Known about the structure:
The chain has 333 residues and is mainly α. It has one domain (3-331): Orthogonal Bundle (ABC transporter involved in vitamin B12 uptake, BtuC). It has helices at residues 3-37, 44-69, 77-93, 99-122, 128-147, 157-164, 177-194, 196-206, 208-213, 218-244, 251-255, 257-267, 279-295, 306-331; strands at residues 166-169, 172-175. The protein has a two-stranded antiparallel sheet. It starts with a helix and ends with a helix. The model is unreliable at 1-13 (pLDDT under 50).
Amino acid sequence: xxxxxxxxxxxxxxxxxxxxxxxxxxxxxxxxxxxxxxxxxxxxxxxxxxxxxxxxxxxxxxxxxxxxxxxxxxxxxxxxxxxxxxxxxxxxxxxxxxxxxxxxxxxxxxxxxxxxxxxxxxxxxxxxxxxxxxxxxxxxxxxxxxxxxxxxxxxxxxxxxxxxxxxxxxxxxxxxxxxxxxxxxxxxxxxxxxxxxxxxxxxxxxxxxxxxxxxxxxxxxxxxxxxxxxxxxxxxxxxxxxxxxxxxxxxxxxxxxxxxxxxxxxxxxxxxxxxxxxxxxxxxxxxxxxxxxxxxxxxxxxxxxxxxxxxxxxxxxxxxxxxxxxxxxxxxx
Length: 333
């Protein structure tokens, strides 16, 4: 990375901290408002449900962070998650494979699709927006063919345990996915900030040509983030099986998982043009959106309507994009 880019990155660091402090302030304000409107909002039961139902999309957002840091995007993650979820359930229920082997096969499928997308983006220079849009549509079609548009239930315990397991803390039960997701985000933060691979991601997102001239294997690094994204889709699908106890083809359609994942990343301060951001900001963005989407219905009235949730989702994505543009203008990148 050039000296000017290093200087910009160092200047951006304190501003990112200020942005994260702002997110924490907004989050505290939302919790206060929702708790006053509905005292049970801040109860252990509500928090447990919040962590449980938003863990899969938080995993998707973590993978999306790595992709966006390189200047890429992946619009297929919700439908790819759904497809891998059905591959696992179908192989286990109808294909006669042991559940563990079905999981390994679906993981391999996710990594293989990610590698194909990554190579097409990195080597063939196909725009990731168009490419992942086609993968999104293809994943949805493949899921419909595989499922017959019918949910698969009565899943083996191994396929539902990760998303349904619980632990007890201070006499209250919380989902084990809380510990898993926290560990994943902690590991991702260490990788991004303390390893050569993490530095390569930031360099690639800041200036692809400068990264190449500095000896970074840009094709391998850029491909790797899409492979990682495919693995995150697999893990999110496995967790979703435990949350729903079924493989439901309507999950991605009803929840707009890819938009939620992108919103979590962007509102957390990761630049859409790459080179700036991290796992910590995405974690805050994930918590903020989970609190917001879960708390709005508790206000009652029109806020309980799904249309308001969609409007808020659009406003959050727009706000994140505007903030990103403002920060880039201030930093002149």
